[in-house]
Specification:
Length: 210
């Protein structure tokens, strides 16, 4: 969750929640701006008691309910129940819980969006028409405005302003997109991807050789 954009987080405004959860423009915890691991930190505090005798987890839950997050609070409870008793790692619940019907967090939204974009680039024409070029540019610019993780969107807007979409053919588009994804990878401290067409085709179109 690294961004160069300033963000409001629970640290200043929600003392009963783990610090660092990113808030949306209405001051609520933003589901698509945080990861499940971030939410799982709520469980970490479950044993600690505050001075008035209530557990910090129950205070957290009350706060979550006030922010339209009651479902998440319940889910966290279930995650805890289904995670291995021997594990003290709150993120281990990821393995146990089926989240296929949950709203996306920032990681699953990101993976799905990159999958759509790289696959679209892989099938983009080698000789696009003027209409193809302008429509795909519109799509990328629209994405940078409407991407639901707003601080990710702002960084992406800046990045594509500095590096306008290269869409004059399939290979240029694939490489350009790979570089944009690498900009985010770098920001998040993830390994950079090899942007050769051979490697991109293998990952996003052809699969490994037999
Ligand atoms: P992802 O980064 O989602 O990658 C999915 C797969 O793509 C990888 O497994 C790999 O096989 C392949 N891949 C990786 N790099 C490349 C590449 N350069 N070219 C081609 N294929 C590649 N998250 C934040 O926390 N902060 C942000 O500011 C942020 N900004 C984002 C902006 C956009 C436009 C998008 C779409 C997502 C953004 N995300 C951001 C989400 C983030 O990029 C990841 O999607 C998320 O962290 C999940 O990462 P992952 O490790 O599962 O793999």
């Amino acid at each position: 969750q690294v961004s160069s954009e300033p963000r409001r987080t629970t640290k200043e405004t929600h003392p009963h929640l783990p610090p660092g959860l990113i808030l949306d423009e209405n001051g609520k915890v933003c589901k698509v701006c945080n990861t499940w691991q971030d939410f799982a930190k709520i469980n970490k505090n479950k044993q600690t008691q505050s001075s008035d005798g209530t557990s910090s987890q129950s205070q957290s839950k009350t706060a979550l309910k006030g922010m339209g997050m009651a479902g998440f609070a319940n889910l966290l409870n279930n995650s805890q129940a289904s995670s291995s008793a021997s594990s003290s790692d709150p993120t281990s619940a990821r393995v146990e819980v089926d989240r296929s019907n949950c709203p996306p967090d920032t990681a699953s939204l990101g993976r799905s969006t990159w999958t759509f974009l790289h696959t679209t680039a892989s099938y983009y024409p080698s000789n696009p028409t003027e209409t193809h070029r302008s429509k795909i540019t519109n799509l990328l610019e629209s994405l940078s405005i409407f991407y639901p993780c707003s601080w990710c969107a702002k960084d992406f807007q800046k990045d594509i302003r500095q590096n306008p979409p290269e869409v004059k053919n399939r290979e240029d588009f694939m490489r350009w997109l790979c570089e944009r994804h690498n900009t985010v990878n770098k920001k998040l401290g993830k390994p950079l991807f090899d942007c050769s067409i051979k490697n991109l085709d293998k990952r996003w179109k052809d699969g490994p050789e037999d």
